Write a sequence for this structure.
């Protein structure tokens, strides 16, 4: 089964910049496909997580946290209807944060930041290493997203829900071409 790689804090605000498509090309022997500009990759060929992590760290021009999941995990979370009862609209973004490890501490949910009545970020559920939530399209949302680590006690990297669907499409295409 394919693996999915999420790099943390790359190509954001001019820090830790690189070209993910170039890295994917350098790692084509592992069947690496780049998804977007935030350091998200699908790895089609079998490789241990330890070796994959070492290869990525060797090729990146900086240190980065690397979260690796199975393609099956991503397909499973994408098929859940976790956002059905949640607010939606052009000013609300659905997201998933991938944690380095399953959290030891689970806050009461939903967790609304800064407050229940005036939330900018809402965590609606946590499943294993995956944190699902919403944020309002406001500049302050970035500061609340950065607090996910603190509230859960684990390093996290966040992707728009649309990116999760793009990953699933890459995984489906590879199964169809197999």
């Amino acid at each position: 089964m394919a693996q999915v790689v999420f790099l943390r804090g790359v190509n954001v605000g001019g820090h830790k910049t690189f070209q993910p498509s170039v890295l994917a090309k350098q790692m084509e022997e592992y069947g690496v496909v780049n998804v977007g500009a935030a350091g998200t990759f699908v790895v089609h060929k079998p490789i241990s997580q330890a070796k994959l992590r070492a290869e990525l760290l060797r090729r990146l021009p900086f240190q980065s946290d690397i979260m690796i999941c199975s393609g099956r995990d991503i397909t499973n979370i994408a098929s859940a209807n976790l956002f059905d009862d949640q607010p939606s609209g052009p000013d609300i973004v659905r997201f998933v944060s991938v944690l380095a490890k399953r959290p030891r501490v689970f806050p009461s949910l939903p967790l609304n930041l800064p407050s229940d009545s005036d939330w900018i970020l809402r965590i609606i559920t946590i499943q294993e290493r995956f944190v699902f939530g919403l944020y309002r399209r406001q500049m302050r949302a970035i500061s609340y997203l950065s607090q996910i680590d603190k509230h859960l006690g684990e390093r996290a990297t966040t992707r728009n829900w649309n990116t999760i669907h793009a990953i699933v499409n890459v995984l489906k295409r590879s199964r169809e071409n197999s």
